[in-house]
Amino acid sequence: MDSFKKKYIFNAIEAAPLAVFRIFFGLMMLWSIIRFVSYGWVEKLYIEPKFFFSYYGFEWVQPLGVYTYVIFAVCAISSILIALGYYYRWATVLFFISFTYIELMDKTTYLNHYYFTSVLAFLMIFLPANAYFAMDAKRNPQIAFQKIPSWTVNSIKLLLGIVYVYAGLAKLNSDWLLNAMPLKIWLPSKFDVPFLGNFMHLEWVAYLFSWFGAIYDLSVPFLLLYKRTRPYAFAAVVIFHVLTGVLFPIGMFPYIMIVSTLIFFDASLHHRILHFLNRILRLGKASFDNGLTKISASGLQQKTIMVGLCLFFMLQLLFPFRYLAYPGELFWTEEGYRFSWRVMLMEKSGYCQFKIMDNTSGRWFYVDNSDFLTPFQEKQMSFQPDFILEYAHFLKRHFEADGHQNVSVFVDSQVSLNGRLSRPFIDPKVDLTKEKESFNHKNWILPLNDEISGL
How far is residue 442's CA from residue 254's CA, in Å, rounded to a whole number? Predict the structure, then answer.
């Protein structure tokens, strides 16, 4: 244990890789925010809708009308400060809060890489990423160090490794490996992709992509750790993520992952990158090469760091397995599905017709969902049980405020999963207004009556 702590936790290493990671993280986040705003998505996703789907326990997190742009502005400014290493600690805290607030405003927009960004930003709050090639270190030489404890870089490597390995483990299921689902559904529509388009309709291509994706995720973090295999692994990272970026609309995630994996390379590469950036920023890189090492001086500090790292990574390792506490097929119920690095594993579509019953008058009618939801919200709601439940409670509040009394809400729903025929999803006899959101199993979800073997 002592040798492990010395080598991987408190051993002094070059600070250059962490500085490069900080700069690229800030720049990538800035570009992501600019891209999001320029496409008009703030207006479309957070201002125009009449209703927003909340995360359980975070119902208080809501868009702020036109002031939602202020949150994005704060996020963008803090990204710039992170890249510059200027008031880094405060900037990272501000970025984590603002970005996570954006992520929590409407779960309709949930993506794994938003969660990854929040987790990474939280970790970065505690890293001395402003100790080298940063304006903070330039202004205050007392915090300028050429070398830092190895845990500060290894923690990022470990987090990236968890994302990859868990994404790979999630692909070890019968739909993905034995049926090439959902790629068998998605790929034929990519016929217009240059060079590859003519092959996208071939079944063997879907199987090739499925198996390569699983093998890639499970192996690439380990291949990046070793110097001999690192260049080939990084080439695979670039090819894999550029290809997924071309084929699927998943935003900046592929490019964030490409840039992030640079941290696995030796410090010599990062010094070359910083020499190039120094020509632009003119921070005087040579002044940071002071030979000083930032150390955890006391035993108490080292114990605090060890406990903090253990708690943080135990949570990352265990949280994705919470789905084991629920019965039924995970892809069908989605209980414990989010925040578990399950990336693009299913094609799910549904149809929901809500029936409003006025129990006082006995009259009933059906709801036109487009009166309350955007097309994107309705699509996401149609196959996710917690969305359906929250929407039913919203309809009860709306129609009771509109003059109806003692309202019940029932839903007739049909859902298709990974090419299977549509089948009933929610028990139509259950008054959803009597059901409450919780961490308990939703027993009003009808069974899939099929099995998807695997993790």
Answer: 34
Half-sphere exposure (Cβ direction) of 341: Cα atoms closer than 13 Å = 26
Instruction: Name 115's Cβ contacts closer than 8 Å, sequence gap at least 6.
Output: 103, 338, 339
Task: State the Cα–Cα distance between residues 221 and 237, nearest whole angstrom.
Answer: 10
Quote helix, strand, coil % in the chain, to nearest 5: 60, 10, 35
**Residue 355 three-state SS:** strand
What confidence tier does 4 reach under pLDDT thresholds 50, 70, 90?
Answer: low
Contact between 189 and 183 (Cβ < 8 Å): no
Q: What residues have CB less than 8 Å from 15, skipping those under 6 apart?
A: 128, 131, 132, 145, 146, 147, 148, 294
Return the half-sphere exposure (C-beta side, CA atoms, 13 A cut-off) of residue 428.
10
Ranges 6-10, 140-144, 442-446: which has the least confidence: 6-10
Other beta carbons within 10 angstroms of residue 180's beta carbon come to 21
Helix axes 112-124, 151-170, angle to 10 degrees: 160
Mean pLDDT, rounded, for 381-390: 96
Cα distances (Å, whole numbers) of residue 430 to 152, 348, 427, 437? 51, 23, 6, 14
Instruction: Please give the single-letter amino acid code of residue 242.
Output: V
3-class state of residue 59 by DSSP: coil
Are 148 and 294 in contact by the 8 Å Cβ rule? The answer is yes
| Type of residue numbered 83 | A
Q: What is the pTM of this model?
A: 0.93
For tokens 């299921």, name the residue.
Answer: 173
Tell me the residue type at 401: A
What are the angstrom distances between the C-alpha of 157 and each of 313, 350, 373, 398, 406?
12, 39, 41, 48, 55
What is the DSSP secondary structure assignment for residue 426, as one 8-state letter?
B
- List of residues 6+ apart from 14 with CB closer than 8 A: 146, 147, 267, 270, 271
Nearest 5°: the CA angle 161, 162, 165 is 80
Beta strands in 253-375 (DSSP E): 348-358, 364-366
Q: What is the DSSP letter of 423?
A: E
How far is CA 257 from its chain centroid?
A: 12
Give residue for tokens 């549509």.
422
CA distance 128 to 11: 15
